[in-house]
Specification:
2 helices, single chain, five-stranded antiparallel beta sheet, about 210 residues, alpha+beta, four-stranded antiparallel beta sheet
Length: about 210
């Protein structure tokens, strides 16, 4: 296989496009959500991914490169195919295959593997049984009106105020170029390989590189 554009044998207009999607297997009813990527130098694309607490998010990223005007590629092949086949590839001209569209399809995941906290009150939940001695006592009813006995004994753990847990934002960096190694990062700033230490992910994340 030979890339006649990269080898400088012909000048053809080309284009690139990328797309990314993410989803959570535990919430498939929400479907796949598109990712909003941002461009970095060197043809690298950054993808912010929101990871809910204690969940796994799967990601697919597609990079494509294509000849914008396919007719121009066919004209080049018709004019130069015989020479390319016999002198360059050592095959018959009819055995040549014209490729005008190429790309990559990569799968990833990021997982917050921390165990969920215990419900408030821990494991000491028990239903309170009213004492029949106070059932007909109006004074007792008046004194306790407006005060609610908690359903659990003792102090619990977890989120006592039922505040929503905020998703963590991590960043995936991908590229069509074969020399680029995809990687996850806690920072939106891309650090090329060998240019310095990349910000590590928090320890409670596990991940897969496609």
């Amino acid at each position: 296989m030979r890339n006649v554009i990269e080898d400088g044998l012909v000048s053809l207009k080309t284009g690139r496009r990328e797309r990314g999607e993410c989803w959570c297997w535990e919430n498939l009813q929400e479907g796949r959500q598109p990712l909003q990527g941002f461009d970095m130098f060197g043809g690298v694309k950054g993808w912010p991914v929101a990871v809910p607490p204690y969940k796994q998010i799967d990601v697919v990223v597609v990079h494509e490169e294509f000849v914008s005007i396919v007719k121009d590629a066919w004209e080049y092949l018709l004019l130069n195919g015989k020479q390319l086949a016999l002198e360059e590839a050592g095959v018959k001209p009819e055995d040549l295959i014209l490729v005008t569209h190429a790309g990559t399809h990569q799968d990833f995941y990021i997982h917050d593997f921390r165990p969920p906290p215990l419900p408030f009150g821990g494991g000491n939940n028990r239903q309170l049984i009213p004492d029949p001695r106070f059932a007909a006592n109006p004074f007792h009813h008046q004194q306790t009106h407006g005060f609610h006995q908690p359903r659990s004994g003792g102090f619990g753990f977890g989120n006592p105020f039922n505040q929503p847990m905020i998703p963590s934002i991590v960043y995936l960096f991908t590229s069509l170029d074969a020399g680029h190694e995809p990687h996850w990062s806690s920072s939106p700033v891309f650090v090329p390989s060998g240019a310095g230490e990349r910000p590590p992910l928090d320890r409670h994340f596990s991940y897969k590189i496609g």
